[in-house]
Amino acid sequence: MDSLRLALLVVGVLIFIAIYFYSQWEAKRKGIRDQELERRRKQTLDAYDKDLISSKKPDPVNEEVAKETTVLLESGLRATPQHIEEAQGLRMQEEPLSANLGDFSVLLEEAEKRQSEKKPEQHYSESLSVDESEKNHFVRPKKWFKTKPKPDVPAPPKESSGSNLIIALTVIARGKGVFRGREVVQILEDKGLQFGEMDIFHAYSSGGRPIFSVANIVEPGSFNLGQIDQFSTPGLALFLCLPGPAGGFAAFDGMLEVARLLAGKLSGDIRDDRRNVLTTQAIQQIRERILTFNRACRSLGG
Fold this sequence. Notes:
Blueprint: H1 2-56, H2 81-90, H3 105-117, H4 120-128, E1 165-173, E2 179-180, H5 181-190, E3 194-195, E4 201-204, E5 210-216, E6 232-233, E7 235-242, H6 248-266, E8 268-271, H7 280-300
Helix pairs in contact: 2-7, 5-6
């Protein structure tokens, strides 16, 4: 009976996650469509202005050709080869991590030192060759930067690979126990998560976009802060969607850290999206999925 109950709960959470990210996708698609219409309108007006000017001047107006500028991607912001590879493939889609991760000062100093010792061309080519034997080593951020989200700041446009990768974990109370609402909220707020959209908690980037989210495993998945002292739940769902505002490995490590903290303080077990207890092998498989996804995005992006 407990297995059936857990299965139904997890299925409900997955449906909730799918609805959430579908709404996000619809909003992004509408924004891209509006930007395209605005761009075409400006092109039409510019063409009209040029025709008007040329009709008044006897001499033809030379067309100005915009200079193409190559922006060298900043790599080395993370201490591991995997993070460097990810920066090369997805840096144009990401917001800086230095503002929303709490304890990266040592890593940034090391990265700046390495960057100053290399030429940009060498740095770019070396960062593309990743030693896959080292992909077990990742940096776990110690604490998410406690800053208010900035929903009024529009997210930068990004190129879509046509697909998303959703990583989900659950923290389930042991036996027939439950998690008390006040304790859950205290842990999440201590880690810098903010209560926000859809009445769930988010770890926000410096640009106000969710890096990962924490929801109630019981439908509809929300938290009622007005009755938090009476609130209880048999489990919590943590999930993220890639590509996102932060690097895939850093986002997953941060989410995993919060899941471990919740499990440790609330006497729960961490499970993967198949309801199995999360093992070292399962964590490695998730990181393999992230690495494969990053490479696919990079290849599609040219």
